[in-house]
């Protein structure tokens, strides 16, 4: 049985006070928490330094801007999942392939939703799995629609490591693939994250026209031969378009 970190628990006790109180004085925090004065003082200093709390000119403490950032991230991700799910389900019912929803987290992509009820062969993809932005169709479609400055920075700094037989490990080829993705409006991958699997992905944009997610169709490589790619690509792009429109995106 593990023991809880006392400092972390007490810090959370202080932060939890602000669920029911918009602002609190130093003494009010001491009275409500029951934590010794010197301990409260040290914790408030640390929480303020981290941006979790802020102290106004009236000497009252309030939740800091960091929570605004966290709240925005959580709400936006939940909104994308909620909005995307029925579109994903419809696409899955049409093609019987795994459908994934991916968002960017710094220089990685993270899978936040997946539907593969009809698929007989389970793939590597799973909710919570991460992959670098250069590897796999859904990760790379996010990379491809970032600003040119962000793309150049990423390509310049990234180390391209192989995950499977088809992983892109050459920066020149990566740049060519990014440009191709921009022209086509979708990305395709074969054996990039796991051998003998393929995926086709399209970008999802928000009301500002910013890339916020990607949706992909994935399955065994034999299902993604030349004659099937155009059909699958159009279906994925249409699903991405529907989700983007529900997020407020309007194509110019």
From TrEMBL:
Positions of the IclR-ED domain: 66-249
Pfam families found in the cross-reference section: HTH_IclR, IclR_C
Keyword Transcription assigned: yes
Keyword field: DNA-binding, Transcription, Transcription regulation
DNA-binding is among the record's keywords: yes
Matching Gene3D superfamilies: 3.30.450.40, Winged helix-like DNA-binding domain superfamily/Winged helix DNA-binding domain (1.10.10.10)
Matches recorded under SUPFAM superfamilies: GAF domain-like, Winged helix' DNA-binding domain
InterPro entries named in the record: GAF-like_dom_sf, HTH_MetabolicPath_Reg, Tscrpt_reg_IclR_C, Tscrpt_reg_IclR_N, WH-like_DNA-bd_sf, WH_DNA-bd_sf
Domain HTH iclR-type: 5-65
Protein name, per record: Transcriptional regulator, IclR family
UniProt organism field: Bacillus badius
């Amino acid at each position: 049985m593990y023991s809880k970190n006392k400092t972390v628990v007490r810090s959370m006790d202080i932060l939890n006070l602000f669920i029911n109180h918009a602002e609190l004085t130093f003494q009010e925090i001491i009275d409500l928490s029951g934590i010794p004065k010197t301990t409260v003082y040290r914790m408030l200093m640390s929480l303020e330094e981290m941006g979790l709390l802020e102290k106004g000119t009236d000497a009252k403490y309030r939740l800091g801007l960091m929570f605004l950032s966290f709240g925005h991230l959580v709400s936006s991700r939940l909104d994308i999942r909620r909005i995307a799910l029925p579109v994903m389900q419809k696409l899955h019912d049409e093609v019987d392939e795994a459908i994934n929803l991916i968002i960017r987290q710094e220089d990685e992509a993270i899978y936040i939703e997946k539907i593969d009820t009809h698929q007989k062969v389970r793939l590597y993809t799973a909710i919570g799995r991460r992959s670098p932005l250069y590897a796999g169709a859904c990760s790379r479609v996010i990379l491809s629609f970032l600003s040119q400055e962000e793309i150049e920075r990423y390509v310049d700094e990234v180390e391209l490591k192989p995950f499977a037989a088809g992983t892109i490990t050459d920066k020149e080829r990566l740049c060519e693939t990014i440009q191709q993705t921009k022209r086509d409006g979708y990305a395709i991958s074969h054996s990039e994250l796991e051998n003998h699997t393929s995926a086709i992905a399209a970008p999802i944009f928000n009301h500002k026209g910013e890339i916020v997610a990607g949706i992909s169709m994935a399955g065994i490589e034999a299902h993604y031969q030349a004659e099937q790619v155009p059909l699958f690509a159009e279906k994925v792009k249409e699903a991405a378009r529907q989700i983007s429109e529900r997020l407020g995106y309007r194509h110019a």
